[in-house]
Amino acid sequence: MKPSIAVVVDDSAYDIRMIDLALRKWRFNVISTSLAVDLAGLVAAYRPSLVVLDAEMPGVDGPSLVRFIRKDPGLRGATVLLHAALDGESLARRVAECDADGYVLRSRDPAVLEQQLRAWLPR
Question: Over the stretch 44-67, which tens digit does the pLDDT of each residue have?
Fold first, then answer.
């Protein structure tokens, strides 16, 4: 079975590592960057089935990146999640505004992060 590909964009190396470790447990190949400007090239090259975006990156916001992804017909089936240290209500509003699929709250507890991500993975 071919592993799924996930792209993770976050300005925190720690958060990238936490998400990477969680997704690899479910056999995802994870491509990550701390630079929002890398997103276009990564999604074009890898055509991921899952994209996890920091909702509060300096200079660009996650919702703008989601809108960019949603314009690409080749990524219509991709699950797009926002990730941030905001409360759930604030993230839910951003998800609704930009047509993301959902959100993952920032957590330093690997089990909590895994539980949140698991809800968005294909069965």
Answer: 899 999 999 998 887 777 777 888
**Residue 9, token pair as written in the block:** 């964009």
The pTM of this model reads 0.90
At 66, is the secondary structure helix, strand, or coil? Answer: helix
The CATH class given to the 4-118 domain equals alpha beta
Domain ranges of the chain: 4-118
Strand, helix or coil at 75? Answer: helix
Which tens digit of pLDDT belongs to each residue from 16-32?
999 999 999 999 999 99
Sign of CA dihedral 43, 100, 85, 121: negative
Tokens of 49: 């089935």
Dihedral angle of Cα 55, 16, 51, 34, to the nearest 10 degrees: 70
CA distances to 34, 48, 55, 106 from 44, rounded to whole Å, are 17, 9, 21, 27
Structure tokens at 108: 């330093």
